[in-house]
């Protein structure tokens, strides 16, 4: 007599519980920004959108300094501390009213009352420089090997691409 075993449920993997790294690290970053006085990290992460690319190319927010609240008095606006590239400090100082307006518009209330500037290099990543154009002689040599391509514009584009790849 043979005993037939009941089919057991296989442990099938359920739905993936993978979460984006930004969600997992959200609390870590929020704590770090809070230590610098930022109520919301969006001021730092969306800085270019808030004040515009022309101004954000030369300054970045470091921290917000909130004055100690006095009991029975309304909360005074914070001081936004900006790191500014040395030669642009005067320009940023002249644009301080515009920066204050844009930051306060972002917050929806007069959160920032004044700016404090700290000169120094910005922590932004340097943009890669565009590669130089390919050597015209190389382009011509490669174009001569592409005789099977009938379209002149396509042949020229492929020759430039080939010369650029060969140059790198």
TrEMBL record:
It comes from the Bacteria. It holds the Pfam family DciA. This is DUF721 domain-containing protein. It comes from Bradyrhizobium erythrophlei.
């Amino acid at each position: 007599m043979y005993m037939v075993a009941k089919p057991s449920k296989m442990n099938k993997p359920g739905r993936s519980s993978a979460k984006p790294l930004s969600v997992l690290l959200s609390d870590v970053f929020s704590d770090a920004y809070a230590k610098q006085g930022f109520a919301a990290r969006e001021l730092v992460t969306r800085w270019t959108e808030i004040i515009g690319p022309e101004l954000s190319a030369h300054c970045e927010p470091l921290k917000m300094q909130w004055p100690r609240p006095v009991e029975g008095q309304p909360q005074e606006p914070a001081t936004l501390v900006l790191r500014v590239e040395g030669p642009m400090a005067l320009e940023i100082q002249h644009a301080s009213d515009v920066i204050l307006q844009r930051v306060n518009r972002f917050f929806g209330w007069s959160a920032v009352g004044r700016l404090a500037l700290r000169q120094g290099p910005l922590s932004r990543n340097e943009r890669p420089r565009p590669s130089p154009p390919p050597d015209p002689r190389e382009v011509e040599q490669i174009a001569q090997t592409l005789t099977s391509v009938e379209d002149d514009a396509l042949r020229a584009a492929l020759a430039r691409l080939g010369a650029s790849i060969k140059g790198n």
